[in-house]
Design a protein that fits this description.
Number of strands: 5
Oligomer: single chain
Distance between the termini: 40 Å
Strand order of the largest sheet: 3-2-1-4-5
Strand content: 15-25%
Low-confidence stretches: none
Shape: globular
Number of helices: 4
Helix content: 40-55%
Length: about 150
C-alpha cells in the first residue's frame, strides 16, 4: 500500500552491528510506514524496495534515490532549509546566497500556509509560486556560477 501511494516519504540510515554494516530504509505515507532492514544502504540494495516512478517521492538529496525521476521527486524542505542556513552562516557570497534562498523559502511557506488557510485557491497559489520558482532557479544558477568552495 505504501509503494502504491500517490505521495510517499523516504529516508535511510546506516550503522554497524558486530562490525557489519546494516541499513534501515523507511517508506511512509501520512498513515502507513514500512521499515526495511538491509545489508547495506547502497542504491542497488534500496532500489528494489520501491515501485519505481509510482507517485511522488519526498526524500533528502541522497544520490541513492537518483533512480527516481526528478519529475516525480520532491526534495525535503527541512533538508533544503538546513543547507540554506549553513550557507547563510558562512562568509562572503555563500552568506548572500544562503540568505537569499532562506528569504525565498520563507515566501514559499507564507504562500503555502495562506493557501491552507483558504486565503486563495490552488490556481492562485500556482500563479504566486511561478515567479518564486524562477527566482529560486536564478539564485541557484548564480550561486553555482560563483563557484563557491564547498
Amino acid at each position: 500500500m505504501v509503494q502504491a501511494s500517490a505521495v510517499k516519504y523516504t529516508d535511510a540510515t546506516t550503522w554497524t552491528r558486530r562490525g557489519k554494516p546494516l541499513s534501515v530504509t523507511v517508506l511512509a505515507t501520512k498513515t502507513l510506514s514500512a521499515f526495511f532492514i538491509t545489508k547495506d544502504g547502497s542504491r542497488d540494495t534500496i532500489e528494489p524496495l520501491f515501485d519505481v516512478d509510482v507517485g511522488m517521492l519526498v526524500s533528502d538529496r541522497a544520490s541513492i534515490f537518483s533512480f527516481w525521476s526528478m519529475y516525480l521527486r520532491q526534495i525535503c524542505w527541512s533538508h533544503l532549509i538546513r543547507k540554506f542556513v549553513y550557507f547563510s552562516e558562512r562568509e562572503g557570497l555563500a552568506r548572500k546566497y544562503g540568505r537569499d534562498l532562506l528569504a525565498l523559502a520563507a515566501l514559499v511557506f507564507d504562500y503555502w500556509h495562506a493557501f491552507l488557510d483558504g486565503k486563495f485557491e490552488r490556481e492562485e497559489l500556482c500563479r504566486w509560486m511561478k515567479p518564486l520558482r524562477s527566482a529560486f532557479r536564478e539564485t541557484l544558477d548564480r550561486a553555482v556560477a560563483a563557484d563557491i568552495e564547498r
